[in-house]
Amino acid sequence: MSKPARPRATLTEVAERAGVSKATASKVLNGRPGVAEETRRVVREAIADLEYVPSTGPRETTAPQSIHVVFDTILNMYAVYVLDGLISGGRELGVEVVVSALDSAVTAQNHPIGLDRIKEIAASGAAGLVVVTAELTGEEMTACEQLGLPLVVIDPANPLDERVTSLGATNWAGGVQATRHLIDLGHRRIGFAGGPERSVPARERLHGYREALEAAGIEVDPALVRSGTFSPGSGESSAEALLDLKDPPTAIFAASDSVAVGVVRSARRRGMLVPADLSVVGFDDTYNAMWVEPPLTTVRQPLRQMGKVAARTALDLAAGKVPDSHHVQLATSLIVRGSTVGPR
């Protein structure tokens, strides 16, 4: 009696055997660029082991292409705006967007993603990975490269090397815009309520703040600079420290709208009026800015557009396209509302 024929292997099985995404296995099979040589070797071995032969008949039915997105946390307005852009971009591109978060707290603690999670995402067949404000280790970046998993990072929490495509706003220019606005109103004692010291966007906004002061001939006072997290609680504690100074600021530039909300809350608790006693500028232009009282002057960064561009960039990388730049910056703009006036 003849032995039953072995079922034809599928490309999905090849990808699973190699521990890579189906998109990566397809690129190796078709000789497309954008895959590390070691990954090509592993995929070719899987093809040989499974005796995979591309079908000349109807293509196998597969699930829609997907992009996996990892946030540090989704419990803030910044994340909601970026997620809306990612989902909208995925819909326009015809791909599913799978979302996960590293931390359920409002203020994430920059937990690394972890090699196991990266391997799981690659094995799931995701076309690419988008990381939003979460920290990436060098080992994790190398793993994505070796697994052939295209990686795009929005507002990186730590410095990245040239292997990684990142996306953000013109944070330095936004810091200059916010600080120059306060200087033009006549303020000279301007505090900075910042974000995490390791955060790339927070550092860029701080550098913009310093540049605007120096360009106006105002000496940068280290006592007026505070770091923290992108949260209202951090804004409160930063404002408390700044307003307790012997010579307190007449205005504060907050590194995010959430931080600015905390600054306003702290000032009110002291019986101060915003903006009569203290002008406040935020950064992001989320709902927080529009519904705080008074409405917040802030630097608008195109958060939804950042999400859309990230989704498109991940698919371009999956298709083997080489990006024009490894760091894409979208323009910011200053939105003047009711939280800033000249000093008394």
From TrEMBL:
One of its GO terms (molecular function) is DNA-binding transcription factor activity. Residues 9-63 form the HTH lacI-type domain. InterPro entries: HTH_LacI (IPR000843), LacI/GalR-like_sensor (IPR046335), Lambda_DNA-bd_dom_sf (IPR010982), Peripla_BP_I (IPR028082). Keywords: DNA-binding, Transcription, Transcription regulation. It comes from the Bacteria. This is LacI family transcriptional regulator.
